Amino acid sequence: MDVRAEVVDILAGFSLFADLTTPELENLVDTFDEQMFSEGERVVRQGLSSASFYVILDGAATIRVDGKDRATLRPGDFFGEISCLLGEAPVADIVAQKQLRCLVLPGESLERFLVGHPRVLFRLLQGEARKVRTTTRWLT
Amino acid sequence: MAHLTDKPFPPGRYPLVVVGSGPGAMQLTYCLGRLGLDHAVLSADDAPGGMFRRWPIFQRMLSWTKPFANHEKATRAYERFDWNSLLSDDEQLRAIMPTVMDGTSYFPSRPEMEKGLATFAQRAGLRIRQSVRWESTRADGKDFVLTTSDGEYIAPAVVFAVGVAQPWRPNVLALEGVQQYGELRPAETYADRRIFIVGKQNSGFEIATGLLPWARQIVLASPSPTRLSVDTRSLVGVRARYVQPYEDWALAGGVVILDASIESVEKTGATYRVHTKSPTDSSTLVFEVDDVIAATGFVAPLRDLPQLGVSVFGQSRLPAQTPYWESATLPGVYFAGTLMQASLGLKRHGIPSNSGAVQGYRYNARVLARHLAESRFGVTLERPAVNAGDVVSLLLDEVTRGPEVWHQRSYLARVVKVGGDGMVDAGIEPLAHFVDDDSGPDAAAITLESNGRDDPYPAVYVRSKGSVKEYLLPPHPLLDFTGDQYRKELSDRLQPLLGSALTRSAS
Lengths: 140, 507
Hints:
The structure holds 2 protein chains of 2 kinds.
Chain A: H1 3-12, H2 22-31, E1 33-37, E2 42-44, E3 52-58, E4 61-65, E5 68-73, E6 78-79, H3 81-86, E7 93-96, E8 100-106, H4 107-116, H5 118-139
Antiparallel strand pairs in A: 1-8, 2-7, 3-6, 3-8, 4-5, 4-7
Chain B: H1 2-6, E1 12-13, E2 17-19, H2 23-34, E3 40-42, H3 97-100, H4 110-124, E4 134-140, E5 143-148, E6 151-155, E7 158-160, E8 166-167, E9 179-180, E10 194-198, H5 202-211, E11 217-222, H6 229-232, H7 244-250, E12 256-259, E13 261-268, E14 271-277, E15 284-289, E16 291-294, E17 298-299, H8 305-308, E18 312-313, E19 318-319, E20 333-335, H9 358-376, E21 385-386, H10 391-401, H11 403-407, E22 412-419, E23 422-430, H12 431-436, E24 443-449, E25 457-464, E26 467-472, H13 484-506
Parallel strand pairs in B: 1-6, 2-3, 2-7, 7-20, 9-16, 10-11, 10-16, 11-12
Antiparallel strand pairs in B: 4-5, 5-6, 8-17, 13-14, 14-15, 18-19, 21-23, 22-23, 22-24, 24-25, 25-26
């Protein structure tokens, strides 16, 4: 089974990568690692340094802050970028709700990847804007 | 009697079955035996040694053994410098590899590696039922039933140490005549030929290195740029042993290293036409070559385990695992040897463990054996008491000289815990288990960490009341973390833990 082709197909449906060509998506699959997390497993640990950038391929994850569940992430969602960009420890746990399949890029590699893919950077900024909007609504 | 010795473990019921006879299975069965745990070992091969009885294909290892180091060969500290010997607490079984090497290279030849493993098996008296093929698996209540060429084996727990050595190629290379790793002809038959290698990992560069003296031209292609281990300061990337084709390309010597996807491959008579496309500007190139070699990776030969419930991931179809190398989705199924690389650990800074290689998984095997003893056999292992005043020295000495944390950085850790009467030395644990064990006692773990840029440095994790805090100590150019600066900082970090232990000890 050609897993790379399958992942390329999945990624082609995500808005984050909507502007990439097939060879670019193949390159992305080679650049990112694939990781699997089982139900209840912590993907990101609040307070522990060394973040990575994650894109959910399949499954769902909980954002948990100080032990309290805050939101759910689903396929196409991404997380970890704030810690990567700021170089700070995550402020939340991300916990696999059920079996979770992700593409993962080490934090150290995110800047190079985004600078090399400006359209992904723009789409990521759109995602961040949505998060700020949601948070603002939640606060008000 | 000789026949009985040759064929131990007849079909039947066992508390535990290990499948495989490579170094991963050998290390595990040795450790299980030392703990007195009854188990059977089966292997399709006709002798121990696993893939090293055939590979690496160009007959020299990628991992070194230094015959001379600043430590005696029978010591734990020497294990840092000997990546290939299996582990033992018996002096006769330690550091076997330097005794079988001829001194021409600190990378053992493949035959030397095979001899070293065979020597260990013989001296340790390992009992393995060879030439029995695991054919299928089924669940029966709380047991697993393994159908083999010799009959059925029934056990509540099975460890698969079957390697990740089955070459895989994508559909675009599913073409008659395209060769894979393991299918190469003798190097001289590539004389004056144009060779296209798909894949720019170590296996691709190993093949290119081996064929450099023979090929007219070599092209290496895959979508992502080549990474070199000397740049990543880890085992991520092409190892220095195989960098010569890269230098040939960098100096425009004739080798072509291309970042491109393979669009199609056509056979045109005796030659091939390979069409490539750049991932950056979609430009295309066409290569007319005499040989196409797929160095596109390997998959785990797990047979029917995925159908039974073992979740797999990635191109290599590796089994998802807990920190103790148990299937994340099918309890009772464990993995050893290079399959342990799929228990990812924290993967800090994106750097994987060394569980895909002997120098990493040999330590995992010892941890797994102890875990199986306690979780499957009901054995309570001794954890010696340690004076609270000695903890700082113990941990700093471990991170300075301990081979487990050196070879398995940010993956295995030395752990001390607060016990009923003070501190206890809990030995080596998977770091991922430690940091996620919210219900565990107050404890501290130390490991060595690499970040891909700096010299390695100690990383300390302190668990107090279910919450884990991380402290990173500064690097030291000589990796000596026993000085006053480290003692003071670690003492400060451990004060809440040691204060509590001292109080318990005094009461």
